[in-house]
Specification:
Blueprint: H1 22-33, H2 53-67, H3 74-83, H4 92-101, H5 109-136, H6 143-161, H7 169-188, H8 200-206, E1 214-219, H9 225-238, E2 243-247, H10 252-264, H11 268-273, H12 278-292, E3 296-299, H13 305-319, E4 323-327, H14 335-338, H15 344-362, E5 366-371, H16 393-397, E6 400-405, H17 407-413, E7 424-432, E8 439-445, E9 450-453
Parallel strand pairs: 1-5, 1-6, 2-3, 2-4, 4-5
Antiparallel strand pairs: 6-7, 7-8, 8-9
Helix pairs in contact: 1-2, 1-4, 1-5, 2-3, 5-6, 9-10, 13-15
């Protein structure tokens, strides 16, 4: 199936006039033709945004002069059109003169330009939808590829047209002061600024996972990536923070078994392999009422980035999602990139960049788990940023990179005694765009696969100051 290429000028449903504002187009062109610097005020406007073909030609000539650092006025624009042999299709000298007669200044040119773009986006949405509707009726169409392409076309449309203009420092600072005042109130109440992880030491060092940030949690196999992610999700939803968890390795039944084991203190290995005894089953059934209150959502059957992006956007709107966890990044596919014959590194780079842009646009934190190269840590060496598998782009796009290091795992593999290391977990902050790199410490309970604070291993309310097993 061919890729969808939206064409705003493509004929739409018979008898319906496409969205347009010819008056706004005339006002913008007239203001530019008057001379001065009107064209410089609307660098975001492009010829293709105009509805009338003649207006596209005129504005293309205006852009040519502007980009060549030449002055713009009616005579010079007319000269460019004449050289391109497009003067007559643009309406001729009389029409250009009429455009300048309809306006006296360029006072509202930015607002008129934005109206032109709004109508262009409306036409493009109709065109994309019309093409998708036509192809959906075709039995030879790969429907999943079609759905993915529609998402891509819509995202490309909005990202290419919705742009911020130049802002004065004074205006930006007013919003900054407003935000800082709110943060100050939060600090006075001794609260975490971002989404809390549930590990006190980590939250104190990071301030929580902040909106608009991409956090990568990396570890090699068997270190407990999924367990820590579920621990973090559990803590967030118990704080009534709507959370969406994508699991590409486990289904939602397996995740809920882990969740119940964490909550009820059940031995997960026994729970899974032999099933619960009568008392444990009764506990799980009673616990269902508590589970029902939690704003936790799972997706366990989607693996391509376009679908993931679409689901996240929909969930934010429909369920008020404030926090997203993806387990794990290297399992996410990018079909549109892969079809071009790109290396897997390029595919992973596309995925990480998409997640970064998504977290910025939705203003929510996304925690993405990542696999590390096994060969980089087999000798017990602590993980490094270079150990992230398949793409340096992950490191570049991430606002924060965390690594899990559990010395007892390596001791187990070497059949060494690890009594002094049991449960000890170092959470290494290997990259922190807005803070220092350091380490936080936690305790891993193998029985329930739950992470807790290192100085609260027994879940006591009172802190127990214990030396770290170094």
């Amino acid at each position: 199936m061919r890729a969808l290429k939206p064409n705003p000028q493509e004929s739409l449903e018979l008898g319906k006039i496409p969205p347009q504002s010819v008056e706004a187009e005339e006002m913008v062109l007239g203001a530019c033709l008057l001379g001065g610097h009107a064209a410089d005020e609307i660098p975001f406007l492009k010829p293709l945004h105009f509805y009338k073909e003649g207006h596209q030609k005129i504005f293309s000539a205006i852009c040519h002069l502007r980009n060549s650092h030449e002055p713009v006025d009616m005579v010079l624009v007319m000269n460019v059109l004449r050289k391109k042999e497009e003067l007559e299709i643009s309406g001729g000298p009389y029409y250009l003169a009429q455009l300048t007669n309809r306006i006296s200044s360029s006072a509202n040119i930015v607002e008129h330009a934005r109206l032109i773009i709004e109508k262009y986006v409306a036409r493009s949405v109709i065109t994309i939808s019309s093409i998708a509707l036509r192809d959906a009726y075709d039995d030879s169409t790969d429907i999943f590829e079609l759905a993915s392409q529609v998402v891509t076309d819509m995202d490309n449309l909005t990202s290419s047209t919705i742009q911020k203009g130049i802002r004065k420092a004074e205006d930006a600072n007013k919003e900054t002061i407003k935000e800082l005042k709110e943060l100050s109130r939060v600090i006075d109440r001794k609260e975490i600024l971002g989404i809390p992880s549930g590990i006190m030491d980590l939250d104190e060092k990071t301030g929580g996972f902040m909106p608009g940030k991409l956090i990568v949690l990396g570890a090699r196999t068997s270190m407990g990536k999924t367990a820590l992610a579920l621990t973090m999700a559990r803590y967030a939803v118990k704080k009534n923070i709507p959370t969406l968890l994508f699991s590409l390795e486990m289904n939602d039944f397996d995740l809920m078994k882990r969740f119940n084991a964490m909550d009820l203190g059940i031995n997960l290995s026994k729970f899974v392999s032999r099933g619960p005894d009568a008392q444990e089953l009764e506990s799980v059934i009673r616990h269902d009422k508590e589970i029902a209150k939690l704003p936790l959502y799972f997706v366990d059957s989607i693996s391509d980035i376009d679908s993931i992006q679409s689901i996240i956007k929909s969930a934010v709107h429909k369920h008020g999602i404030k926090y997203v966890i993806i387990d794990y990044l290297q399992l996410v596919k990018a079909p549109t990139v892969a079809k071009k014959g790109a290396l897997r590194e390029a595919e992973v780079a596309h995925v990480s960049r998409t997640l970064k842009l998504l977290t910025m646009s939705l203003k929510i934190p996304i925690l993405s788990l990542a696999q590390l190269r096994r060969e980089g840590t087999t000798q017990g060496a602590k993980p490094r940023l270079s150990d992230l598998r398949e793409s340096g782009a992950i490191e570049m796009d991430a606002d924060m990179v965390l690594f899990i290091y559990r010395a007892e795992v390596y001791a187990d593999e070497k059949k060494e005694d690890h009594t002094d290391k049991e449960g000890f977990t170092e959470l290494m902050i290997a990259k922190h765009r807005n803070g220092p790199c350091s380490s936080a410490y936690a305790y891993f309970d193998r029985k329930t696969t739950k992470f807790t604070d290192w100085n609260r291993k027994t879940e006591n309310v009172q802190k127990q100051e214990e030396p770290l097993p170094f």
